[in-house]
Write a structure and sequence with these properties.
two-stranded antiparallel ribbon; alpha+beta; about 210 residues
Length: about 210
Amino acid sequence: MKKQAIMATLVLLASTVLGQTSLPTGTALKMKLETTLATFSNHAGDPFQARVTEAVVVDGKTVIPIGTTVQGRVTKTSEPRRVAGKPTIALFPETLVMPNGDRIMLNATLVDTSIRRGTDVNNEGQFKGDGHDGKDLTEIGLGTGGGMLIGGLAGGGKGLLIGGVMGAGATVTHWLSKHRSATLPAGTELVMELNRPMVMNPTSGQ
């Protein structure tokens, strides 16, 4: 932490001397995804692109204008087969491409998206899709109960136990083999935060 504080101070001093603006760690970048990303079609290394939708302004000067391009790559996609697992998409933003063509290295983490229902972003910046929901678990329960009923009718008490085990086994096996997908459609709003200070040149206009 001490080393990071020293580096941040040096960046601030350098930017002041050069007449530049330093964006502090934690600065939010709001953007709209231009590439559809999905766990069933994307893999680590695939590129993505987004467009800044809200200008970053410091002391009345625009340093990251609307329309600035954010380029990066997917670092992870997964579709766990566990009932409690959640599909995951991890993004790594790499570059800001300014409207004038300047390219600036970007070090930021995804903190939020406009997709709400059943999804979240963990503290590592990974988008977590919807896991198995209540409907799925109800179906597992009905599968188990159905097995018990059929087994009971066929063989009495012992049949209840055997039927329940068979029903549960078949139903849970079905859900363990069923993938849950996560998708970030083009047009999804993303919020990323800087992981370290970034020196920018103010642009004309807002």
